Amino acid sequence: MGSSTPESMLDVARRAMDIEIEGLKAVREQLDGGFSEALDAMAACTGRVVITGVGKSGLVGRKIAATLSSTGTPSFFLHPVEGAHGDMGMIRDEDVVLAISNSGNTDEVNAIIPTLKSLGATVIALTGGADSLMAELADITILAHVPREACPIGLAPTSSTTAHLVVGDALAVCLMERKKFTQKDFKRFHPGGSLGQRLSLCVEELMHEEDLPVVRSGATLAGALSRLHEGGLGLVAVLGDSDRLLGVLTDGDVRRIVVSGVYDADAPVDDVMTSSPRSVTVGESSAHVLDLMEASQITVLPVVREDGILAGLVHLHDLLGKGKLKFSQV
User: Fold this and answer.
1) Short-list 231, 195, 238, CA closest to 215
2) Whole-angstrom distance, CA of residue 74 vs CA of residue 104
3) So what's the pLDDT on residue 322?
4) Are 96 and 122 within 8 A, CB to CB?
5) Domains of the chain by residue range
6) Where does the record place the SIS domain (predicted)?
7) Is position 164 annotated in a ligand binding site?
8) Across all residues in the chain, what is the average pLDDT?
9) Are 101 and 117 in contact (CB under 8 A)?
10) Under 8 Å CB-to-CB from 144, ≥6 apart: which residues?
């Protein structure tokens, strides 16, 4: 048994990385007209770029498909076994298929290539086997042969899968250049990323702070309704001394008052407001506030300081990017 001290394991890790770097350097030198032809076919594709492979190559293929789709090249992963059992119906003659196999002799993948071609799709082989059956069957071949695997027994796909993943990234980057794919385009395909950034902010970075719809304790219901209408947020805050939040009057409250038949324009708003209303505190995350609003079916919330003084109001649309701050327009 070899030594398994932390120092020896670091040596093993570095050796594995060195072998994979060696493999990437070899594949970089192998880039030739096959890569360029594949890039031309993918750039001219009016359908989808379909990725296929099994085992570790299949996992790499799923990542490549995801990268292509998120960078402006419509793509999906097709498992070759499922393809042989009916999923080939998803293939159109305007599609381009990228088939991945390190050996190039993976039976499950090679078995469907003739059918893919008969359906009119262009087939690109990404393989380490220059003389393999896959290279022979495909229309275009990208050679990605690594000198050795990082696996100490030479069996587990390591350097080869890294190389294929990097070739996929290289294709995606080149396609972005060819299509002049911009940051604005990227945001179109990543709304969740924009929302995630927004929800990582503190609530005070998204709340309304100026010209808030507020009235003082003792104001008439008619006066409160006027501010409610002018504010456009569906809520008016009722403040006491030192701007401390005492209550709120919402659109829903007004409907209940009218339906109950107890509307009195001259009555103090204090008599009909919701006292000790639900609120959030400055410093809370927007994600937490959104969870609270969804759970309680609330569209607008007061934001208060630790001492209960009103700091602002936050609307659901502010959290989702439809209010004061907006998603990028396209």
Assistant:
1) 238
2) 25
3) 58
4) yes
5) 6-180, 203-320
6) 38-181
7) no
8) 91
9) no
10) 27, 30, 126, 127, 128, 160, 163, 164, 167
Q: Is 52 helix (H, G, I), strand (E, B) or coil?
A: strand
Q: What is the pTM of this model?
A: 0.63
Assigned token pair, 85: 């059992």
Residues contacting residue 320 through CB under 8 Å, at least 6 positions apart: 195, 198, 290
Please state, in angstroms and rounded to a whole number, the distance separating the CA atoms of residues 275 and 263. 18
Model confidence at 1, in pLDDT bands (50, 70, 90)?
A: very low
Whole-angstrom Cα distance, residue 50 to residue 95?
7
Strand (E) or helix (H) holding 44: helix 33-44
Over residues 280-312, the pLDDT tens digits come to 999 998 888 988 888 888 889 999 999 999 999
The DSSP element (H or E) to which 307 belongs, if any, is none
**Tokens linked to 228:** 């409610």
Residue 88 Cα distances to 80, 94, 112, 116, 166, angstroms: 9, 14, 9, 8, 27
Q: Is 68 helix (H, G, I), strand (E, B) or coil?
A: helix
Other Cβ atoms less than 10 A from the Cβ of 77: the count is 18
- CB proximity list for 234: less than 8 A, separation 6 or greater: 228, 250, 251, 299, 300, 315
Confidence at 208, pLDDT banded by 50, 70, 90: very high
Helix (H) or strand (E) holding 236: strand 235-239
Burial of 203 (0-12, 13-18, 19+ CB in 10 A): buried
Q: Can you read off the two tokens belonging to residue 22?
A: 């060696």
Architecture of the domain delimited by 203-320: Roll (3.10)
Q: How many CA atoms lie within 13 A of 77 on its CB side?
A: 17
Straight-line distance from the first to the last Cα atom of the chain, in angstroms, rounded to the nearest whole number: 61
Which CATH code for domain 6-180? Answer: 3.40.50.10490
Give which of 158, 114, 147 is closest to 17, Cα–Cα: 158
3-class SS of residue 246: strand
